[in-house]
TrEMBL record:
GO cellular component: cytosol
Any single Pfam family the record assigns to this protein: HTH_1
Protein name: HTH lysR-type domain-containing protein
Keyword terms: DNA-binding, Transcription, Transcription regulation
A GO term, aspect molecular function: DNA binding
Cited SUPFAM superfamilies: Periplasmic binding protein-like II (SSF53850), Winged helix' DNA-binding domain (SSF46785)
Keyword Transcription regulation assigned: yes
PROSITE patterns membership: HTH_LYSR
Domain called HTH lysR-type: residue spans: 1-58
Family recorded in the similarity comment: Belongs to the LysR transcriptional regulatory family.
Gene3D superfamilies, per the entry: 3.40.190.290, Winged helix-like DNA-binding domain superfamily/Winged helix DNA-binding domain
Length: 299
């Protein structure tokens, strides 16, 4: 069993197609079929079966796919670690960050990191927390800063507490009275996509109180856009309370203070269990553990 065969196997799993995998790998389909034949002969088991135009994993193939993913991750991490030691470099950090932390924590953290370790290189991905988590699990990211989640595959460390609340523009009708919870159903909302954890939590909270789900007139994939839209419309939304303390939105947004719709969460850093962490990654982790809370509330 060699690395090339494992990577070919992983490509077929990814695309569920011999043809597409062969095209992406720039090899012939017969060569790819021969590779799978070698693996199946070594394992004395079938790895794939055909369903229409797709190939799907057998139960043995499912086990092999999980093992293959771990093996290739370890190989890639070993190459990175050895290469960085050989070059004497601090390494490269692939960092994923949720929008709220991008605005309120990351500028302070990265400026301090560059002072401490000027040789570091970094690629930054800003996105929704579920997308970042999946990127971390696929070894596309080394570390994610965002809402902590429970996972057997990930390790997390809390940095700062956060609260997500219902907000409106200062000129909204509900901002000029003492609103009742049920009145939240009378207005349209701007919300993140339906698979976001905060959106699911809000919808479940409404359901628990016998209310219809919030009516999303606008769905966004960029949380950074939400405060500006809230400030200029009569749309309600559900965002971090931290946004209400920062100009220019401190003067244009208000919280609608409902205990029932206040979500308490922890922001922190997450890495894959037992993964290789470059010196650059370790430096940022130490900095955030020691000063992350201070940096988050600095401005």
């Amino acid at each position: 069993m060699n690395e090339r065969d494992l990577r070919y196997f992983a490509a077929i799993v990814k695309f569920s197609s011999m043809r597409r995998a062969a095209e992406r790998l720039h090899i012939s389909q017969p060569a790819l079929t021969k590779c799978i034949g070698r693996l199946e002969e070594q394992l004395n088991a079938r790895l794939f079966e055909r369903k229409g135009r797709q190939v799907v994993l057998t139960p043995v193939g499912e086990v092999m796919a999980r093992r293959c993913k771990l093996i290739l991750q370890h190989i890639d991490e070993a190459c990175r670690e050895v290469g960085e030691h050989a070059e004497g470099s601090l390494g490269h950090l692939r960092l994923g960050v949720a929008a709220t932390l991008t605005e309120f924590l990351l500028p302070n953290a990265l400026s301090e990191l560059l002072k401490q370790t000027p040789g570091v290189t970094l690629s930054l991905t800003v996105g929704m927390s579920d997308v970042l988590r999946d990127g971390l699990l696929r070894d596309e990211l080394d570390m994610v800063l965002g809402p902590l989640i429970s996972s057997e595959e990930l390790e997390g460390a809390a940095i700062v507490e956060d609260e997500v609340v219902v907000v409106a523009s200062r000129d909204h009708p509900l901002a000029k009275c003492v609103p009742q919870l049920e009145q939240l159903n009378d207005y349209q909302w701007i919300l993140p996509s339906g698979n976001m954890a905060t959106r699911r939590w809000l919808e479940q909270t409404f359901a628990d109180h016998g209310m219809a789900a919030p009516k999303a007139q606008i769905e966004v994939s960029s949380l950074a856009l939400m405060p500006r839209l809230i400030a200029r419309t009569d749309l309600l939304s559900f965002i971090s309370r931290r946004n209400l303390r920062s100009p220019p939105f401190s003067d244009s947004l208000v919280e609608l203070p409902f205990r029932e719709t206040t979500l308490h969460r922890h922001f922190g850093l997450m890495t894959r269990r037992d993964s290789y962490l470059s010196p650059a990654c370790q430096s940022l982790m130490t900095l955030l553990r020691e000063r992350g809370k201070e940096m988050y509330h600095a401005n």
